[in-house]
Amino acid sequence: MGGINRLIVIMLFTDVDLLDVTGPPEVFSLLRRETDDETGYQVVLAAETMDPVTTAAGVRVLPDTTFREVSGRAIDTLLVPGSVEVDDERRVHALADPSVVGWVKELAGRARRVASVCVGAHLLAAAGLLDGRRATTHWSTAQQLAADHPAVEVDADPIFVREGAVWTGAGITACLDLSLALVAEDYGEALALRVARQLVMYLKRPGGQSQFSVPIEPASTTRRMDDLRHHIARHLAAPLTLADLAEHAHVSERQLSRIFRTELGMTPAAYVESARVEAARNRLETTDDTLERVASACGFHTLDTLIRAFRRRLDTTPTEYRSRFRYSV
Known about the structure:
The structure is a single chain. The chain has 329 residues and is an alpha/beta fold. Helix content is 45%, strand content 15%.
């Protein structure tokens, strides 16, 4: 590999997600196993103080150094994990402690490369590092990231996104994918592939995180829209054309399109397709129905139409999706 050890600083703070902190070092440590060269990465965990940090898992982690001490060093890669809180309805909200955000700004200025892990993207965004950039985060907080930071182009599907020297990764185990991508950039894909094999994982995971997400239905504010959504869910096998939906809602087709754009931010056709894909996902996960039967029951009518919708929405095929997510009930 050659060269000197690259200093990787992983930020620690209260209630940080444990795997975000421990996953990347496992990837970087395997690099040395795959080469006779002693150089590679020097990983340190940095926190506000040297006191143990309690993670969201309840496990306490000891820092190697403090933010202030490491701010005086040349940092190769700053890794920023995240933390969340879950409300009474099990909705996930990413947190961005102002003091941590301040240190993100400080340390990012010392780093050649900055990468967020999972909901750590919210900290990068709060520090202004994602303005005008495309970024990803865990699918459960993507809407929050877009709402809180309009200057960020949020893409909820990729496993990770690179924009120049700033990387953002999805969560939770996607921290391994991101770390492998960093290894590939630094030392080449051949060596990164050998590390991936040690981890028993893909160097490049097929598809995006949409495959793993639970779709978050956009909130509607009118009874008419709620009625339309229930009507669509009950009649997925019907044509559900724009004319059909407009007739059901007793409005013109133009007015219906305007209602969908205003209420849900999408066209009627896009909403119908998303509802059909979600129904098909459920059948692929829980039944042994043939793909043709799934396509028919969910309104796709032909297998080819079902396959095209899955590729468009989930970047995978129905067969691949079932092989990963099928479970017995």
